[in-house]
Fold Biotin synthase.
Amino acid sequence: MNAHANPRPAVRSDWTREEIAALFDLPFNDLLWQAQAAHRASHEANAVQLSTLLSIKTGGCPEDCGYCNQSVHAETGLKATKLMDVRAVLQAAAQAKDAGSTRFCMGAAWRNPKDRDMPAIVEMVQGVRQMGMETCMTLGMLTEDQARTLADAGLDYYNHNIDTAPERYDQVITTRTFEDRIETLEHVREAGINVCCGGIVGMGETRADRVGFIHALATLPVHPESVPVNALVPVKGTVLGDMLADTPLAKIDEIEFVRTVAVARITMPASMVRLSAGRESMSDAAQALCFMAGANSIFTGDKLLTTDNAGDDRDAALFARLGVTPMAAECKVELAAE
């Protein structure tokens, strides 16, 4: 950690919407200064975690998420697949490790996993952990028993995004509720698994909606250990893709995106803040500002599930220009016990 780092900011779960809105309204330089100070107090200043995300079961999901091309309600031509063979998943994990990733994330397009799928899922988790990598799964909603099974297998993180502000949730998804998401997060937390939870911006929402999104995360009893911030990738054939593809709302303003990252860092100072979907269309300057704002994790590779990603070569070139180094597994600074 930087020898001149500031004292660690207090980790609060009592943020008000008014406080969060005031952060969004700060002059841009003041906001970034606060975010960078919060970042350096709890994290390595110039280290970014490399994670790889693999779709282990693609398409055919019964949910109607307006942003997702894997929904059966979308008309994107994407063909549904069965759950990948365990050996193929572990081979992909080994390749990701060789490319520098320290966390391997596995995603399945399910509303919820079936119990018959759990033995294979457990094998995947155990196999990746044996390689010395952190493991993350996103499989949809979980029962208490399924969360405990994943915990017993050694799963490090479970991803379950809240997607957007609670009050806007039913405008994006109707086949589940915001409360359904919170219930699974509670099962994951109670099982002792780290929580990975964020959402998507650029879905036509207002700044007030982004305030509500950050507020919902920052007021959880325990902050997510990992907070992915996605920029919508409009896909033709999805509800939001068709609605926003030809409008100015299709791509969130880069400065506003950086503001969202900065507010996430200030309100959740100990969390890893990950630049996720949408990086492939961001300028290098915008990504550099996101790192200044406190983002310290990215997904590597050419694909994020089924959409394009920036790619390893571009990332390596950007890191070299910025003096950023890939984070070793032990680089994250843990908060001292209260």
Observations:
- Residues 11 and 81 are 42 Å apart (CA to CA).
- The two ends are 20 Å apart (CA to CA).
- The first helix runs from residue 17 to 24.
- The chain is about 35% helix and 15% strand.
